[in-house]
Amino acid sequence: MIQTLTPGALPPNPRILVVGATGYLGAKILRQLEAEPAFALRAMSRRGAPAGSVGAVDWVQGDLMDPASLAAALGGVDVVVSSANGYMKETIAADFEGNRNLIEAATRAGVKRFVFLSIVACDNAPSVPHFHAKKVAEDLIKASGIPYVFVRAPAFLDQADDYVAKGVKAGRFYAVGDKSTKWSYVLTDDLAACLAKAATHPDVAILNQTIDVGWCDGAKSQSELADLIVAATGRPLSIWVVPWFVIRALVRPIRFISDLGYDLLQMFMFFRTGRFIADTARQERFFGPAPSSGEAIARWVRRNGLGG
Ligand SMILES: NC(=O)c1ccc[n+]([C@@H]2O[C@H](COP(=O)([O-])OP(=O)(O)OC[C@H]3O[C@@H](n4cnc5c(N)ncnc54)[C@H](OP(=O)(O)O)[C@@H]3O)[C@@H](O)[C@H]2O)c1
Questions:
Q1: What is the Å distance from ligand 1's center to 232 Cα?
Q2: CATH code, domain with 33
């Protein structure tokens, strides 16, 4: 008897390819998926398996800029989860051309679900290059016909090089623009858990959804964020603000020096509009209760040893 699957439904032991699996966030997505032995996991990096990697993950060498390598990496794959990006450390070409190559290769490979890490409100920020790259990739995935889940992240509270934690250790909180404009945040552990759930969610109602991720008590101003950190650490903080006029004045000159610098300053100018706000209704529907700011910050404080 020939069995047919509902479009986007997954076979019992789906093969999942994580693209960007060596990254700060990407490695966390892979770890979340590794916790479930029923999945056949494949992970892609331009360098192949990282030194010392053990376990059941099948590492493949692949480059977003090399379509032939993507065809090989995607063979037999049911689900793609991608958090890869080039704009932060190398070139934004990976975010435009590289994502286009990946989407075309996934279409040819007959992938059943594409989970794409996008950014909150990216469709409202054409002036921010890496936000616009996410919007362009979302449109290409929609046009490809592959069932998708777009998980849209707000600002990460934690980073590989955690400058907020470093500042707190020095008794300082560095704020951008002003103390009162609100925007949304997430911890990367929580975001990775949402992406892993999106990859394997059994309810096909999740397909073709765009899901913002954030905190259940909403966006925070930087003064509110500093107050929450003070409450969780018991350490006093002085807030140092780089005002908007300085950021605005730097946008043009920095363009001649640094693509990344220009991108980040344009991003902060977008934050100023007050539209970088996650709506967590779909997150709660598909992934369960969103953490509160207080609970997430308490975890971040513990992990960074910032408690008093
Ligand atoms: N930071 C924030 O506040 C924030 C907020 C919202 C969304 N985001 C998004 O979050 C994601 C950050 O992920 P992350 O922390 O894991 O990034 P990361 O640490 O910068 O790692 C980048 C990953 O992309 C892969 N990559 C880069 N160029 C590639 C290419 N040409 N071919 C194949 N792979 C390539 C790298 O793989 P190899 O080097 O091993 O090949 C690596 O795994 C990005 O998509 C970013 O846009 C960030």
A1: 30
A2: 3.40.50.720
22/18 Cα distance (integer angstroms): 9
Q: What is the mean pLDDT of the chain?
A: 95
User: Does residue 283 sit within a domain?
Assistant: yes
Per the structure, the complete domain to which residue 44 belongs is given by: 15-154+186-214+278-288
In a domain, 163, yes or no: no
CA–CA gap between residue 75 and residue 65 (Å, rounded): 17
Q: Is 8's pLDDT higher than 90? A: no
In a domain, 270, yes or no: no
The residue whose C-alpha atom lies closest to atom 33 belonging to ligand 1 is: 63
pLDDT in tens, 283-296: 999 999 999 999 99
**Residue 70: inside a domain, yes or no?**
yes
Please tell me if the CB atom of residue 47 comes closer than 6 angstroms to any atom of ligand 1.
yes
Phi and psi torsions of 33, nearest 5°: -70, -30
Which residue's CA is minimally distant from atom 43 of ligand 1?
A: 20
Cβ-contact 232, 304 below 8 angstroms? no
Q: What is the pLDDT of residue 9?
A: 81
* Total domains, the chain: 1
Listed in sequence order, the DSSP H helices in the chain are: 24-34, 67-73, 93, 99-109, 129-144, 163-169, 188-200, 222-233, 244-255, 259-271, 281-287, 293-303
Q: Give the type of residue at 135.
A: K
Atom of ligand 1 nearest to the CA of 62: 33
> CA dist 64 to 93, 106, 108, 150, Å?
9, 12, 15, 19
Tell me how far the alpha carbon of residue 143 lies from the centroid of ligand 1, in angstroms: 23
pTM, two decimals, is 0.97
How many whole angstroms separate alpha carbon 170 and alpha carbon 240? 12
Residue nearest to atom 26 of ligand 1 (CA): 84
Kindly state the DSSP code that residue 39 receives in the 8-state scheme.
S
Q: Which residues pair with 177 in a beta bridge?
A: 243
- Span from the CA of 5 to the centroid of ligand 1 (angstroms): 32
